[in-house]
Amino acid sequence: MSTESRVAIVTGGARGIGAAVAQRLAKEGHAVAVVDLDESSCEDTVTRITKDGGHALAVGADVGNTEAAQAAVDRVADVLGPPTILVNNAGVTRDNLLFKMTEQDWDTVMNVHLRGTFLMTRAAQAHMTKAKWGRIVNLSSTSALGNRGQSNYSAAKAGLQGLTKTLAIELGKFGVTANAIAPGFIATEMTKATAERVGVPWEDYKKNVAAQIPVARVGVPEDIANAVAFFVSEDSGYVSGQVIYVAGGPKA
Fold it and tell me: Looking at the annotation, which residues are catalytic?
């Protein structure tokens, strides 16, 4: 893939998928702003990038807060330059069956996933449209197809797919593409916490999941980073409004 050095923002970049994406984009030659709720939590990712010769900036921000999201994008533009790559990865889970789910459980997930993606994208697109070039990648999930105990998360991840397709329509004439990646099971701290919550040893949990996946293994964060690298490349300019399921088998 051909690449040109750009300024990228990766939300939820402190760990897991976000950290892998940030490191991959840095290896591609981009300056990367690693955004997470707690700025200090981003330091490990930033350190790994800089040790490998990359350029990165840690930014603390609640992406669901209007002022914080705008301030984060403004800071990136001031320190690294105008951001023209945005990976909306920040996310939380508040799993529960519908009759047990609280309004706070619902609102928290919607605020981070949907509102946060909207706010960060609205702030960053100003730089992209001015540059006449931009790449937006939103992290959806196979849960968008429905998943027991995740009515909030599933709704948010499905909503991101609709948002992505609309962004592609609105921003295409400015040279900006928008695509979504819907991961299947990815081995991260978040999925490990799920195993702990249901009382199944982590290795057994992964083995059980892998048995249901056509490629016979669980995903790793780098699998998602690989897909992001394509979507933000120069070579992907004719691909927009798409949702790719990176799940080890057919979905959707």
Answer: 153
